[in-house]
Amino acid sequence: MLVLVLSALVCVVWFGLIFCHGRFWQAGPVLAPVRGSQLAAGNCPEVCVVVPARDEAASVVQCIRSLLAQDYPGALHVILVDDNSTDGTGRLARSVPDPRGRLTVVAGRARPPGWSGKLWAVAQGVARARELAPDSGGFVLLTDADITHDPRHVSTLVAKAQADHLDQVSEMVELNCASQAERMLVPAFVFFFALLYPFASVNNPRSRVAGAAGGTVLVRWSALARIGGIESLRGALIDDCTLAAHVKHSGGRIYLGHSCLARSIRPYPHPADIWRMVARTAYVQLGYSPLLLAGTIIGMVLVWIVPMQLALLAHGLPCMLGAVAWVLSMASYTPTLRRFGQSSAWALLLPVIAGFYTLATIGSAVDHHRGRGVVWKSRAYTEPDGAISTHMRGEGTATAMNRTMGDDVG
Where are the beta strands (DSSP E) in 91-226? Predict the structure, then answer.
């Protein structure tokens, strides 16, 4: 009887996810590229790009070159904040040819108490941007030093914001999917992100779900001022979705989609690299709560692993119901696999992949309780109650599937 109830439950859960959860399984919206020459002459407000960078020598030159090569016809400033790097990041950024004088490199100051490293660097960059662009009618573009941008990217983002009167436009950049570990785990990472933050719900002004992808966040100066500036986020370790929540819940309109014009060049060649990426802030997203951790583990097992077990091990009606749920889960994953150019056969391993992410989340909690906390770029954060926090409000979800690939807390 218990097996029958369990099989019916997982089937109901999956029908609910497929039909009542913001169409999370769809591939997600992608903006059509817009050239700078296509923008109307009076529709090109000033844009300041802020790039926080800490020990990014391997990628910073490619990133800055791509930003300086933007075809955006309006005023464009690129501000890189060298966050106390030890590998020559700032020097390498300054070495990039800048014939139009668009680049400013700021030497980061020591981080004050209560700030995450990345957001302190962003705040310094935003302050410098305000000096360069005192007019409040433009935009700030927040991006990372491990991302390269097609020359049309800024024009495309601004065109979307202007056409739809949006306060924030964010895109999940293309991620590396070259190594065996990346092919197995990276598409699922994006899939779980969409499950947590369904793009259709994020983009719906009537929904309280708010999300963003830190690699590309274009925000209006007016919206940033309305929420109290970067200072209002200062302790957030999951800063992109925190910013989106603040903007949306203050009455702003936001957009989240996939990018075909920006790409992360940070590799994750081994499973251990992806494990560390997830584990560093998974427990943060759960608010350091053992109860939420337990609920997350139960939910992950129920949604991803139990259907397969029922389909393979049960008999009769429980087997049939389990098989239906398993097929639904694999079918929901297929659009994401296609987006990454991967075989649909990878969907068969989705329960195993979900188990990997669940174990990484448990590892994140273990690290915290051992006193290691969130460690990234040689900085550690362990405070669970105020100075350093998630600042997540109204997301309607509390799970450990962290979504910060390519988004360093610094």
Answer: 103-107, 139-143, 147-149, 168-174, 216-220
- 42 Ramachandran zone, left/alpha/beta (phi>0; psi -120 to 50): alpha
d(CA 64, CA 148) in angstroms, rounded, equals: 8
Contacts of 206 (CB under 8 A, 6+ apart): none
Residues forming beta bridges with residue 139, ordered by sequence position: 47, 220
DSSP character for 305?
I
| Low-confidence winner among 180-194, 346-360, 375-389 (lowest mean pLDDT) | 375-389
Tell me the CB-side half-sphere exposure of residue 241, using CA atoms within 13 A.
28
- 105 phi/psi in degrees, rounded to 5: -110, 120
User: pLDDT (tens digit, 9 = 90+) per residue, 292-329?
Assistant: 999 999 999 999 999 999 999 999 999 999 999 999 99
pTM here? 0.88
Per-residue pLDDT tens digits for 370-384 = 877 555 555 555 554
Residue 406 has pLDDT above 70, yes or no: no
Three-state DSSP state, 148: strand
Phi, psi of 257, deg, nearest 5: -150, -170
Query: What is the tally of helices (H) and strands (E) in the chain?
Result: 15, 10
| CB crowding 176-196: b at 16 or more within 10 Å, else e | bbebebbbbbbbbbbbbbbbb
Alpha-carbon distances of 64 from 76, 94, 149, 176, rounded to whole Å: 13, 9, 9, 19
How do 47-53 and 139-143 pair as beta strands? parallel
- For residue 352, the number of C-alpha atoms closer than 13 Å in the C-beta half-sphere is 8
Looking at residue 110, what DSSP letter applies? P
Name the helix (H) or strand (E) containing 374: strand 374-376
